Amino acid sequence: MRLLLVEDDPMIGASVQRGLRQEGYTVDWVRDGAAAELALADKVHEMILLDLGLPRKDGLELLAGLRRRGVAIPVLVITARDSVADRVKGLDAGADDYLVKPFDLDELSARVRALMRRQGGRAAPVIEVGPLALDPATHAVTLAGAPVALSRREFSLLHALMKQPGVPLSRAQIEESLYGWEEEIESNAVEVYIHSLRRKLGADAIRNVRGVGYMVPAGS
């Protein structure tokens, strides 16, 4: 899952980016509201972590503009503005959740996962597709109840496919989910990870849709 972090404080931004990357997320980081608008024009991010007190363009202004244009991307506000009035303004402007600084990274990760479930229309934290089960909180994957050890990128790729069983994702979509701006993408990286996942989960766990991409079959 690819997140956009909009935070002007260098220490907080670096800490959040590092912590969420360790949780398996791809995190792009910008330092002001104008840069965030440019980043969002590419439409590759699945969630925004948004500070409010930003240079060049205030976070509330950015958020309200997105909602006016009908952009439905989930937004988690992370800010030092802690009054009830500030929280009401943020939520009324279109925020999906509101977290006050300082916060614990574990709580931030839990809120990100909760928004992901809400976006996907799921209530249960564990994603189950046939004999496959994936827990985003613990990074645990089981096949017919037996644990399967995956690398961080293998887990992220499988997670992306299992969120939409039966829906093929193109190679470009998978690359956008797995890699941030500053990360170099090897030409055959997706194929390598798919091959490894098939070896661990079975050849039919991930299917190739010719001319389209890859998917986890809905009834697998």
Explain what this protein looks like in three dimensions:
By secondary structure, this protein is an alpha/beta fold. Helices cover 40% and strands 20% of the residues. The chain contains eight helices and eleven strands. A five-stranded parallel beta sheet has the order 2-1-3-4-5, with helices on both faces. A four-stranded antiparallel beta sheet has the order 6-7-8-9, with helices on one face. β8 (140-143) and β9 form a beta hairpin. α6 (152-162) packs across α8 (189-201). It starts with a strand and ends in a 5-residue tail after the last strand. The model has no long low-confidence stretch (mean pLDDT 91).
Portion in helices:
40-55%
Overall form: globular
Spatially, the strands of the biggest sheet line up as 2-1-3-4-5
Cα separation of the termini: 22 Å
Order of helices and strands: EHEHEHEHEHEEEEHHHEE
Report on the biggest sheet: 5 strands, parallel
Proportion of residues in β-strands: 15-25%
Computed over alpha carbons, the radius of gyration is 18 Å
Number of helices: 8
Spans of 5+ residues with little confidence (pLDDT < 50)?
none
Q: How would you state the average pLDDT, rounded?
A: 91
Number of strands: 11
Secondary structure class reads alpha/beta
